[in-house]
Amino acid sequence: MKITTLAAAAALFATQASAVVVGGAITGGAALTNGGSFLELSGGGFSVGNDTFNNYNLYAFNEDQNIVIPSEISVDIGTNPLAGQTVASHYVFFDPPGTATRQALGWVEFDAEIYGVATSTVNLAASDFLINNSVTYLNPSLRGLESVDSVWFTSGEPNRLYIDLRAGSPGDYVRVFTMESPTAAAVPIPASGLLLLGALGLGSVLRRRDKTR
């Protein structure tokens, strides 16, 4: 699937009533020089994680929103959300064409402050119970960032995630946890969510990840 304009994205994905990704931009790297832009996905029905986009855009979409979590969630950057706190979950990724490494500099903005970001394969897998959507997640064992990648946010801009990603195949993927969204109603944890990780593992297609320059 390749989406190159906001109009095309709107045609393919229905708008969510309570989206909490509020904006984003590409500011540098091969993604900018090759005409990439930021796009928010909504409505589900697409796949991520196996070179399914193969373009220079930076993408984000909302997962489950305003969940009172049952136990602490481990993150790689920021603060672990604790049991009893309310979080909203979001997925951010860059899936460029080909296998050679391509860089994307940019940012994604949310309507609530960021708790933290899961960037490792282990922490992404442990938080998959927050998915609760119709997106197909491929290659769960190849998700996460490498040492050449970085994402960050600051106390001065707590709602904005900055990214510096150098992705090849199958792309770079992170999960962002924000505080309670002021635009979405609280929801219970889906009973099926805890079973989803096993299904993802069975359905994954493992591919070699080329991160060399």
Topology, element by element:
Blueprint (H helix, E strand, L loop, with lengths): L5 H7 L8 E8 L1 H4 L4 E4 L5 E2 L9 E5 L4 E2 L8 E2 L7 E9 L7 E9 L3 E5 L2 H6 L9 E2 L12 E3 L7 E8 L4 E7 L14 H11 L10
Q: N-to-C terminal Cα separation, in Å?
A: 25 Å
Biggest beta sheet summary: 7 strands, mixed
Give the H and E element order. HEHEEEEEEEEHEEEEH
Q: Please tally the helical runs, counting DSSP H or I stretches of 4 or more residues.
A: 4
Structural class: alpha+beta
Uncertain runs are 1-19, 186-213
Approximate helicity band: 10-25%
Shape label: globular
Q: Give the domain tally.
A: 1
Number of strands: 13
- Please indicate the percent range of residues in DSSP E strands (runs of 2 or more): 25-35%
Rg (C-alpha, Å): 16 Å
Mean pLDDT: 81
What attributes characterize this protein structure?
213 residues; alpha+beta; seven-stranded mixed beta sheet; 4 helices; 13 strands; 13% helix; disordered N terminus
What do you see in this structure?
- The chain is of the alpha+beta class.
- It has helices at about 5-10, 30-35, 120-125, 195-205, and strands spanning about 20-30, 40, 45-50, 60, 65-70, 75-80, 85-95, 100-110, 115-120, 135, 150, 160-165, 170-180.
- It has one domain.
- Helix content is about 15%, strand content about 30%.
- The strands form 3 sheets. Strands 2, 4, 5, 6, 7, 9 and 13 form a 7-stranded mixed beta sheet that branches. Strands 1-8-12-11 form a 4-stranded antiparallel beta sheet. A two-stranded parallel ribbon has the order 3-10.
- The two termini are about 25 Å apart.
- The model is unreliable at about 1-20 and about 185-213 (pLDDT under 50).
